[in-house]
Amino acid sequence: MKLYASLTSPYARKIRIMLAEKALPFELIVDSPWDASSAVPANNPLGKVPVLISDTGEVFFDSPVVAAFIETLGASPALVPQHPLAAVRVRLTESLADGLCDAAITALLESRRAPEVQNTADIERQLGKVARALDSLETRLRGKTWFNGDTLQLGDIAVGIALAYLDFRYSQMPWRDTRPALTDFAARIHARQSFIDTIPPAA
Ligand SMILES: N[C@@H](CCC(=O)N[C@@H](CS)C(=O)NCC(=O)O)C(=O)O
């Protein structure tokens, strides 16, 4: 298996952590889709990472799809439950975490534009999504160890990465102040070897 990824992409990190938790071997191809010489658009018409190429040469992109493909390989531990409704609930947690990243990235890219062309209203709107997603995650987790079920699952990995992304790109954001369950969760999940081994390089 080959995985095209940038080292700072939270979506690619989700897949790298999944593969690490399952101890599945793969070749990591570090490639930034922002570079003109990137090989990513040739494999994913949308020009985004992660892109996974299976051992039979089949190409998968969009991290939830890549994650679904990895689950079909049957490697332990299962990170999505067999039961269809339980699986949808894990996917919902993943979707909320991925959406948090989508909004955080959109706001970051907008804030990097020249001040005179920045859409500050949209930055605020995107950061509102981030805050609401954090509040929802805090409520969903309260009183539990994991978001869904009794063991680590894909939703937990996705949330762990989303929180790490905020610490990476929004280090001044005091998201922990009002969210004790997420604070404790982040401390626990960020201590896993799979998270430590995929910490992005300094920006
Ligand atoms: N929904 C996609 C999002 C992937 C994504 O936006 N990746 C970013 C890196 S964090 C990217 O490749 N951006 C390049 C671009 O938008 O041109 C997924 O989950 O894989």
Features:
203 residues; alpha+beta; Glutaredoxin; Glutathione S-transferase Yfyf (Class Pi), Chain A, domain 2; 2 domains; four-stranded mixed beta sheet; 8 helices; 4 strands; globular; binds glutathione
Instruction: Please give the count of helices.
Output: 8
Largest sheet: 4 strands, mixed
What is the residue-mean pLDDT, rounded to a whole number?
97
Structural class estimated from helices and strands:
alpha+beta
Q: In which range does the helix fraction lie?
A: 40-55%
Task: Say how many strands there are.
Answer: 4
Oligomeric description of these chains: single chain
For the termini, the CA-CA separation is 28 Å
Bound compounds, please? glutathione
Level-2 CATH architecture of the largest domain: Up-down Bundle
Which ranges are low-confidence, i.e. pLDDT below 50, for 5 or more consecutive residues?
none
Q: Could you spell the SSE succession in H and E letters?
A: EHEHEEHHHHHH
Strands of the biggest beta sheet: in what spatial order?
Answer: 2-1-3-4
Radius of gyration: 17 Å
Q: What is the highest CATH level, the class of the largest domain?
A: Mainly Alpha
Number of domains: 2
Explain this structure.
- By secondary structure, this protein is α+β, with helices and mostly antiparallel strands.
- It has two domains: 2-72, Glutaredoxin; 84-192, Glutathione S-transferase Yfyf (Class Pi), Chain A, domain 2, CATH 1.20.1050.
- The protein has helices at residues 10-21, 40-43, 63-72, 84-111, 120-141, 154-169, 180-190, 193-196; strands spanning 2-5, 27-30, 51-53, 59-61.
- The chain has a four-stranded mixed sheet with strand order 2-1-3-4, covered by helices on one side.
- Helix 1 (10-21) packs parallel to helix 3, helix 1 (10-21) crosses helix 6 (154-169) and helix 6 (154-169) crosses helix 7 (180-190).
- The protein is globular, with a radius of gyration of 17 Å.
- Glutathione is lined by residues 6, 9, 11, 33, 47-50, 62-63, 98.
